[in-house]
Design a protein that fits this description.
By secondary structure, the protein is an alpha+beta fold. It is built from 29 helices and 18 strands.
Length: about 775
């Protein structure tokens, strides 16, 4: 009987183990080849230590708020301790459950992904995702190259785990991830999607951002078509958190019922707070980096080196300033448009058709469209023809963006119709600029009206004439002079023919004290003052007050405010009076730090003595008279007349202001109402406002609306009301400090501080 021989499995077993160990050896070999760089360049130790990133430069207010950024990628890294616990838990639960157990590669997850071909989840760890972000970037479509990339990611992930702690890996990953919409990194994402700092994110907000990690486009809560995707993915994050013990089932069920809510706050260069100020700081940085290289000789890059620029701007004061500008300018523009309905040359006045064409053509040649077409080689005829072809465009309006079809030429005329503004607020004693509003809308009106623009200052120049007379001639505010016409003859003080300035309203007669004359802005007495001092001495003082006088001729007419000056110059000059005669140069950049926190720039104060303390105080006393019984009196009134007057209702905002504290200030209105000014001071804050059209022919037809007290003063009034309501700002409501030795008489006994309601009502109509 023959016994059948049992089949031998030995050779199959040998083959199995041979293939098994051969496969392992091959994998090990591939890993070794990858680590040696045979499969392509790998990051060096130094690169792992300092992974290359583009870091945004951040502009920061004095109270620690981010005003804005300059960036190629809007990334501002934060530390692990600035991440909320719920965000970290959501991340680990959703993206890498065994993050704290593995060393860069999740073997269990990898095996599961291989067996189920990825149908039950991938195997990529947080560390591998970071490796891809830092060094691999885009996955290749070629299968062989994709496998090599994956192997390299594994090697890099292991190295990252050796180099960094788990906390550092989480921080780097969240700081690097691009959440789109200009939000690179978790800090930008928190600010843009929820208008919060990461530490302030609640659990549902954290879950929304973690949900986006899978695919920021497909699960984006801002995209209407993908909002349901984002909601479902957010709820998956909650389920993962419950599965991993971070929240209870009850909490999960409750959280999943919540609506998906965002608070979109874009951080592009044209958006946000202090846009004009940020543009100024940007130019400051560009100039600074040219002369201040890094220790290795390279120049700093303000868009990628992660600088921190600490400014003197107070975020609260800046927002109050912008709010006051927006509220008043919207209302003023409405009245301006109403009055232009019957103006055949709107928005221009007192100009010919030829002059209007010249204005428009000049603007065409200064436009970005013209310059770009010129650069591309288009002929003059082709360029000008393009300005007469209608196209779709989005226009600014105070009631929201207008989508329309218009020719570029007509859009230029449209934008000429807007009144604009410049506003600056500073601390006289330190030079710190606390608020800076350069215009009504940076996206549509790039020209800046704090420092760049210079406009005729009108009666706001008169205090410089009076201060010169007080300082050099020791004149008292109580000095009485006749309110009669005064002629400066040809050949004197730069006058080419006899000069006899007139008063507004042609009102003359009697005598006025200097205090009354400045308060009521009487031209005849101002002419007498400059006749005594001489324009050269006035300009000498003005120059010491920080004003560029190189283009101002020493002629008598400057007494009435013919020079063109900036808001920046006017506020800094007036601040000297509040600072007891000491000029302190305004500044906005306090210090700059590099990405490691090393200070690479520190502001050095600049100051000089200009007036003695007594002269400065007496000038302040004169300016207080303006707000007590002069052209700035409406800051103090609580009058029913203000509430009921038709033109106040239509054009003035924020009344009644009803201030009772010491305020020194001056209104200014230029010829034909082209420019309206108000400069106002309390002991520790000076603020100036200008309002006018881009073209001087864009103006109100009458003094009622075109005066500084109507155009500019309301912005100051609303701003200061908000500031005083915020007790944390510590803005003074005290009297200006009187010098211990005061030899000049300031109590005149004849000031009209107790004038009747009827008197005040009549004067308000002629404020200027």
């Amino acid at each position: 009987m023959t016994t059948k021989k049992k089949p031998s499995f030995k050779k199959y077993i040998i083959w199995f183990w041979g293939l098994f160990f051969g496969g392992i050896s091959l994998v090990v070999l591939l890993f070794l080849l990858a680590s040696w760089g045979v499969l392509g360049e790998m990051p060096t130790f130094e690169e792992l230590e300092n992974p290359e990133t583009n870091l945004a430069t951040e502009v920061i207010s004095t109270d620690g708020k981010t005003l804005g950024k300059y960036f190629k990628e809007n990334r501002t890294p934060i530390k692990y301790e600035d991440l909320p616990e719920n965000l970290i838990n959501a991340l680990v639960a959703t993206e890498d459950e065994r993050f704290y157990q593995h060393s860069g590669i999740d073997a269990r997850g990898t095996l599961r992904a291989v067996v189920f071909l990825g149908s039950q989840g991938g195997a990529s760890t947080i560390t591998q995702q970071l490796a891809k972000q830092l060094f691999t970037k885009i996955r290749s479509d070629n299968l062989a190259e994709a496998i090599i990339q994956k192997i390299k990611e594994w090697v890099i992930a292991v190295r990252l785990e050796e180099q960094y702690t788990k906390q550092e890996i989480i921080t780097m990953y969240l700081n690097k991830f691009d959440f789109i919409y200009g939000a690179v990194g978790i800090r930008s994402a928190a600010r843009i999607y929820f208008d919060k700092e990461p530490k302030e994110l609640n659990i549902e907000e954290s879950a929304v951002l973690v949900a986006m990690l899978k695919n920021p486009g497909l699960y984006n809560p801002l995209r209407e078509r993908f909002k349901e995707n984002a909601l479902n993915r957010r709820n998956t994050v909650f389920s993962q958190m419950e599965k991993n013990g971070y929240i209870t089932k009850k909490e999960k069920d409750s959280l999943q019922q919540l609506e998906l809510v965002t608070n979109y706050s874009p951080e592009q260069h044209d958006d946000g707070v202090a846009t004009y100020l940020r543009a100024y700081v940007q130019e400051f940085l560009k100039d600074w980096v040219k002369n201040n290289p890094k220790p290795n000789g390279e120049l700093y890059n303000i868009y990628s080196d992660g600088l921190k620029v600490y400014t003197s701007i107070d975020y609260r004061m800046q927002t109050y300033a912008e709010d006051a500008v927006n509220r008043h300018m919207k209302k003023l523009q409405k009245e301006f448009n109403r009055q232009n309905k019957t103006n055949p040359t709107a928005p221009f006045r007192s100009v010919s058709k030829t002059e209007i064409n010249q204005i428009i053509n000049k603007s065409i040649k200064n436009s970005g469209r013209y310059k770009e077409m010129k650069r591309k080689g288009f002929s003059e005829e082709e360029i000008l023809a393009s300005f007469d072809k209608k196209r779709e465009m989005r226009l600014f309006s105070w009631n929201g963006t207008i989508d329309t079809t218009l020719t570029p030429r007509d859009s230029i005329r449209y934008y000429k119709s807007f009144l604009n503004t410049g506003m600056m607020s500073m601390t006289p004693q330190t030079g710190e600029i606390k608020a800076w509003v350069g215009g009504i809308n940076f996206k549509h009106f790039k020209y800046e009206h704090v420092k760049q623009a210079k406009r005729q200052v009108g009666s706001t120049f008169k205090p410089f004439v009076y201060a010169t007379a007080i300082d050099q001639l020791h004149l008292s505010p109580c000095l009485e002079l006749p309110n009669t016409k005064h002629t400066i003859p040809a050949g004197r003080h730069g006058v080419t023919e006899d000069w006899t300035p007139k008063n507004s309203g042609n009102e003359y007669g009697g005598v006025k004290t200097l205090k009354q004359a400045l308060a009521e802005s009487i031209n005849t007495i101002t002419a007498r003052m400059i006749d005594r001092t001489g324009p050269e001495n006035v300009l000498s003082l003005v120059d010491k007050l920080g004003v560029d006088t190189s283009n101002i001729l020493p002629v008598a007419a400057i007494a009435l405010g013919t020079p063109d000056l900036s808001v920046y110059e006017m506020v800094s000059a007036y601040s000297t009076f509040a600072n007891k005669g000491v000029y302190v140069k305004p500044f906005v950049v306090e210090r700059i730090e590099d990405k490691n926190g090393t200070i690479i720039y520190q502001h050095q104060p600049e100051s000089r003595d200009v007036l003695n303390e007594e002269s400065a105080y007496v000038t302040i006393n004169l300016l207080e008279g303006v707000t007590r019984f002069g052209s700035g009196r409406r800051l103090r009134t609580n009058s029913n007349y203000l509430k009921n007057a038709t033109h106040y209702k239509r054009a003035v905002t924020g009344y009644p202001y009803a201030f009772e504290n010491a305020i020194a200030g001056k209104t200014g209105t230029t010829q034909n109402q082209s420019d309206g000014w108000f400069i106002g001071m309390v002991p520790n804050l000076a603020t100036g406002v200008w309002v006018g059209g881009e073209e001087r022919s864009v103006r109100f037809p009458s003094i009622t609306y075109g005066q500084g007290a109507t155009m500019a003063l309301p912005i100051w009034g609303m701003y200061m009301k908000d500031i005083y309501a915020d007790e944390n700002l510590n803005i003074s409501q005290e009297e200006f400090e009187k010098p211990e030795q005061l030899s000049i008489q300031i109590d005149c006994g004849t000031d009209n501080e107790d004038e009747t309601e009827e008197d005040s009502r009549n004067k308000i109509e002629l404020d200027f």
